[in-house]
Amino acid sequence: MYRLFLFPEPFPDESLYSLAVRYHRLVSNKSYRQTSRELFGTYSRTCGSVLPCCLGALSQRLEGQYSVAELVETRTLLPLYRPFLSEKAYESAILCMQGTQGTGLKMSLGMTASGLLKHASFRYCEACMQHDSEVFGMPYWHRIHMAAGVCICPIHGNVLLSANLPEGADWRSMFLPGEFASESVLSTQSLDAALAVAKMQFWGLENPQRACDLVDGDFLRLRLTEMGMVHRGRLRELALRNFVAPRLGPGNQEVEYKSVTNSFEWIMCLLRRRRRIVQPFKYYFLCWLLDSGVNDLRKFQRRNFSIVTDRDFTTKHAYCPDKAQVATRRREFKQDKSEKCHDKAGYYWLYRHDSDWLNNYVKHHPFVRSIEAPIDWSVQDARLSKELIDARDEILGDEGKPKKITKTALLRRVSAKYRYLREFSFFPESIQVLEGLLETEHDFQIRKLSWAIKRFSPSKQCATSLIMRFAGIRIRQVSESEVDSLFLPI
Ligand SMILES: [Zn+2]
């Protein structure tokens, strides 16, 4: 398994794509293809997506520094969907993102059918860009800015800008905010709904468990009851229609808001749960229509109930597992040998249905990285020097076309335990040895020519250009006499 020698430290709310771009630049890769192979072991077509795949391979390459669950929860938009998905659907979405096949993921989350994807773009906030440049040294992509329906920065209240990529370019250009021309995503500069919805979505993304409580505790129904929109268990549709009508008007000019302002029917579908999966944007927009803001969501306390029936709302079962189920899940969780609680079997299930017990368990079973004995750096240095020489010999002994002895090629063949790249000041001998082992382009060409001559046994009369081609040399750095001398042994 290939491992990564370096990976950027994630910034707050930074998307996975943004991390990939920063990695791409850090190692000065020439193409996305190369970066994708290094990060994911394959050519990933979903790296630019808000729900990227191949995270299993990335986690392995990072040697468990971030588990798949951590990557999903902190670097993608899946947590925003968690309150609207069953346990099974959420876990299968994670499995999908862990693997290499992302086909059907957006469809299974109802994103394709919602029609909201056509407004998706790379968005950023100018104030965030400036702040990030000052504090972190560079701008980066915030995942919340990429969520459907988020048109205003929830932190600064600025209308987001959408990057206009040049003709023929796409996210594989590996770009960061502010590098291409951009345009405002809203024509109305102060759309109350947009700021409120952005703040609520940001809260939902950062607090998925509390958002689950909000949805499971039927916040919307309680809000409607408080507003007097429910009479004897029946929803007063006309009263609701009259209440929301004036609030639907202002957003009508905005293309992204058309799907929620053009009709009233989706509201009834959402309240009656006729659609299988609710889009977070629609849910939080309805919260706003019902005069609720992020502070109301924060204050919401889930009330205990198991079954709610009435004539107008569909019968809903707030899922309450019985004691035996909880006991089984707890047992399976405890028996799992994974070091990190995040990675144990049934973590998500317990997170949702038995969070007090889980929090307590996690608190008493913190993940402690194994404490290493004090390092004798001089011994490490001597060992690494030897390994570097062995690595050089290995490269020289490799079958087939010669490979250049570069720093990367050598370091890939030595053990990562030395932490050479992080602590290189402790490795003076290795630095010297490494410098001495590196091959110049001239020496490499000589080696390739010797190989080509040995392999194809051409006569001296054979055109030099032919040998060059065999050796794969385009720009020659060896003299004619040097080429001649290589023929001497034959
Ligand atoms: Zn901002």
UniProtKB/TrEMBL annotation:
Residue ranges constituting the Transposon Tn7 transposition protein TnsD C-terminal domain according to the UniProt record: 343-429
Chain ranges of the TniQ domain: 6-159
Origin superkingdom: Bacteria
Pfam families the UniProt entry points to: TniQ, TnsD
Protein name per UniProt: Transposon Tn7 transposition protein TnsD C-termianl domain-containing protein
Species per Swiss-Prot/TrEMBL record: Pseudomonas koreensis
High-level lineage: Bacteria, Pseudomonadati, Pseudomonadota, Gammaproteobacteria, Pseudomonadales
